[in-house]
Task: inverse folding
């Protein structure tokens, strides 16, 4: 018999959870979790992360905490009864939006009751307040669902224990490249119980609006946030240029904390916004140059990381040695994971929304990998002595899918370092942008 409550323990869920967490962890080259000390211990809380990378956001949030988490997702994903049962098994509740129609909005009463019950049992609930994903370093307007849930929980048991909303920042080294980096940062919680006491109103709308402003402000402080606008992409590109040109190491470099790199980005963004306010015309010209620079940089296939490499000859020589040393491992990895990456390439080529492509890569690793990798390991043990088969499994077979992607990414940067040597105009434009910005 299936579970009656969405948060109840389920043996199959508990069996699959570590496998999913392991797969999510190894879908990123590096991962960090910061701010766990901000998670309340005296009352239940709702997690409110920014939504920039489709299903990967939820999976990264799930992996960041070993205990139970119930999620909210768009209600249209539950239209099929069979899919709805799977979502319930995965501890996901339907969140209806106004655009789904008044009849469907009424279903939120049942969902809200389940959320309140979940929180009352001290199970954390996670909802993405923006309501839909967008692969940008910004925030969409926050919906009302997270606040209505918190207010309903407070009305139910706020006198016994406080209800919190915890802002969360999700930051990725790249939205679209598999095996990039992921950073989860928990912010200072909003004590909803105490917050609404100071509002001197019982009107829900009048309570939601200040809560919305407070949550939006706190979420924006937890990742490389840029205020929304037509120059959003150019400002982020300029941030990356200035980060690469700084004395500090850019985001994701070895030996650099992802959190420290994110904070460096925030300092640069603050400087950009300050200069935009003081000299809008000067910054407009710089951002136009950045847009042109990005167009030609992408056309030539050059990584932003290649523009500030010192000792170019030494750098290329060392990477040549590393590429040659890793080539045998790459060939073996390509052969060992052949069905996986072929299927992955096919699926990614068919997905129009690029933000979903990493989800496809993870799906292949989780789905086909659970069949293919054990089959290869069993075959290896049948053909070779156990100690050789064990070594081959640990060193070659299990990490083959990840090493295949890492080698290709390393080669992309290596070729970029070579290409940039002949791109004098692009290097001059890069130097001009950084010089003009610093002189503004």
Result:
């Amino acid at each position: 018999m299936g579970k009656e409550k969405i948060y109840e323990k389920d043996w199959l869920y508990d069996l699959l959870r570590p496998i999913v967490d392991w797969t999510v962890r190894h879908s990123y080259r590096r991962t960090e979790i910061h701010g766990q000390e901000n998670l309340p211990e005296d009352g239940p809380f709702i997690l409110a992360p920014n939504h920039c990378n489709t299903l990967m956001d939820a999976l990264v949030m799930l992996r960041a905490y070993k205990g139970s988490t119930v999620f909210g997702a768009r209600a249209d994903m539950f239209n099929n009864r069979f899919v709805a049962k799977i979502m319930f098994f995965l501890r996901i509740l339907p969140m209806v939006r106004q655009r789904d129609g008044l009849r469907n909005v009424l279903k939120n009463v049942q969902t809200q009751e389940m959320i309140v019950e979940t929180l009352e049992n001290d199970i954390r609930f996670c909802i993405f307040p923006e309501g839909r994903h967008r692969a940008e370093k910004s925030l969409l307007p926050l919906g009302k669902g997270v606040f209505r849930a918190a207010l309903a929980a407070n009305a139910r048991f706020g006198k016994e224990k406080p209800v919190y909303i915890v802002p969360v920042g999700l930051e990725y080294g790249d939205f679209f490249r598999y095996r990039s980096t992921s950073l989860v940062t928990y912010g200072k919680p909003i004590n909803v119980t105490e917050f609404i006491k100071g509002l001197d109103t019982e009107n829900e709308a009048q309570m939601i609006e200040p809560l919305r402003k407070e949550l939006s402000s706190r979420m924006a402080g937890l990742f490389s946030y840029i205020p929304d606008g037509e120059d959003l992409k150019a400002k982020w590109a300029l941030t990356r240029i200035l980060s690469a040109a700084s004395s500090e190491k850019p985001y994701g470099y070895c030996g650099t904390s992802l959190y420290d790199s994110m904070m460096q980005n925030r300092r640069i963004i603050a400087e950009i916004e300050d200069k935009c306010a003081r000299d809008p015309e000067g910054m407009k010209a710089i951002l136009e140059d950045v847009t042109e620079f990005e167009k030609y940089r992408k056309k030539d296939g050059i990584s932003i990381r290649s523009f500030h490499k010192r000792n170019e000859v030494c750098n290329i020589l060392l990477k040549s040695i590393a590429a040659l040393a890793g080539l045998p491992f790459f060939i073996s990895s390509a052969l060992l994971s052949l069905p996986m990456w072929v299927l992955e390439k096919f699926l990614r080529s068919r997905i129009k929304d690029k933000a979903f492509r990493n989800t496809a890569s993870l799906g292949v690793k989780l789905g086909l990998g659970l069949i293919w990798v054990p089959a290869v390991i069993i075959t290896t043990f049948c053909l070779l002595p156990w100690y050789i088969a064990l070594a081959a499994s640990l060193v070659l077979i299990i990490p083959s899918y990840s090493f295949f992607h890492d080698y290709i990414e390393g080669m992309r940067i290596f070729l970029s370092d070579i290409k940039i040597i002949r791109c004098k105009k692009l290097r001059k434009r890069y130097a001009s942008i950084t010089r003009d910005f610093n002189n503004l």
Notes: The chain has a mean pLDDT of 91.
